[in-house]
Every structure is written in structure tokens, then in C-alpha cells.
Give the backbone structure.
Amino acid sequence: MGLRKKLVSLAGSIAVFSAVLWGIPKLAPDVPDRYEGVSLPVPPSTSRVGPKTTSAPLPPGFPSMDRPPPEIEVPDGQPQPIETKFGLTYDIPADWQNASTGYGGWEDATGWSIVYGAIGRFGYESCSEQNGSTLGLSGATGSADNDLVRVATEHSRNSSRIFSADAPGTEPTVTFSEPEEVTVAGSRGVRITATIDNIVQDSPCDPPSAVFDVVATESYATALTAVFMVQLDQGVDDAADRAVADRIFSTIRRS
């Protein structure tokens, strides 16, 4: 799979593109300085994101959770609610798999990683060439930064690294939408969509293109900002329609 390695952990089970796991939710990080579950390389001397500010502390008495909420069970054929640690709940479609107590994301050989909790997955094990393969992934994480545009921008820009291969010059073509002001659970949110094309397929399970969609909004527990992500493979058999991200984001509500 090269530099891009998808990892999914459920109750200690191994379901990964590579072999890096977050075996037990308690072991995952709570809320580091910038955003939960992220390790970044040394930043370059210049940044297109703009100047960064000192992370604001959580207000006194602000609720916090160090473990994900339990899975919510619903009858077959119904949308599946996933409660997050950030006082917000979202739904995944009925044909997705609820992995809400696990963690999923990507890492590379340099030690960089991006991890989301409260995950849902689509097309699990759909590619026989890769254990743990998926056609789509959703999840949530937290940020100590309350600048929604900056948080959404930082997360969306991970898409280029996620879908790059080993060899130099194999970066995909990534097109970013302008930050879009949206309303999430009655509060302000910012959405950025990354469309990834010309992905170098160094595995039969790699898609030729993908969508990486991010919404940052106010959090009500654990972190100042909640970040929701939907990633969808495109250009492959049984790929989910891009509108699935719209539907998932539209269900975000107070828990």
C-alpha cells in the first residue's frame, strides 16, 4: 500500500491495510495540543494555512470523555446512529457497518498519522487482495483549536498525503473546495471537500480517485471543536455516491 496505510481497530481485532493498530479505545489519545489522534512531521518554514494561534483551554467544568460511548443498536435496515465523545451524534446509512467504538485512519513510514474515532465503514473487506479493505470510512475527532476554517483546512489537506504512494512524484491531483459555511446542530460549521484524482494504484485495492470531506463545528464535550470526516473511494465497482457525505453530515445533532 506504500505510504498510505488505512488502520481500523475494533476491540483488539486486526483489520488494517498495514499493521499499526489502536487496539483498545482507552489507549488512544484524549486531546493533544492541536487535534486528537494526530502526529505531524516538523512543519515547513511556510504554511498556506496561515498563522497559528495558541490553543484555547477548555472552559471550567467542560465535560470530557476518555472512552467512546457504547454502540447504539438499531434494527436491520435502518440508519445507524453513532454517538461521539464530543456531545454530537451522526447517522451512517443502513448498508454501512457500525464500528463506533473503534478507531480508523491512516499512517505512513515517517510516523505521521491521522486517526478518527466513532467510525463507520462501507464495503468492508470488499477487496480480497487486502485485509481490512473498505470503500468508505466516516469518523470524528476533536481539536483544541476553535478556528473552524483552520481546523477544516488542516484536516482536508491530509488527503494528499493519505493517497500518495511510495515513489517520488506520485502525489495525486487534489482539488479543494472553498471553505463553506454550514449549520451543524444549530451551530456554525465549516465544510471543505477534497477531490482526489490520478491516484497511483500500487495495490489492486487502491481507487483511481476518492473524496475526502471534512466538517468542523462546535464541540460540547472533550474538545473545543469537533471534526467529522467522510472518505469515499470513487471509480471502483460498488462505490458510494458522493451525495452520501451530504446525507451523513446532515444528520449531525446534539447527543
User: Anything to note?
Assistant: The first strand starts at residue 5 and ends at 10. DSSP finds two helices and 14 strands in the chain. Confidence is low (pLDDT under 50) at residues 7-54. The helical segments are 148-162, 243-250.
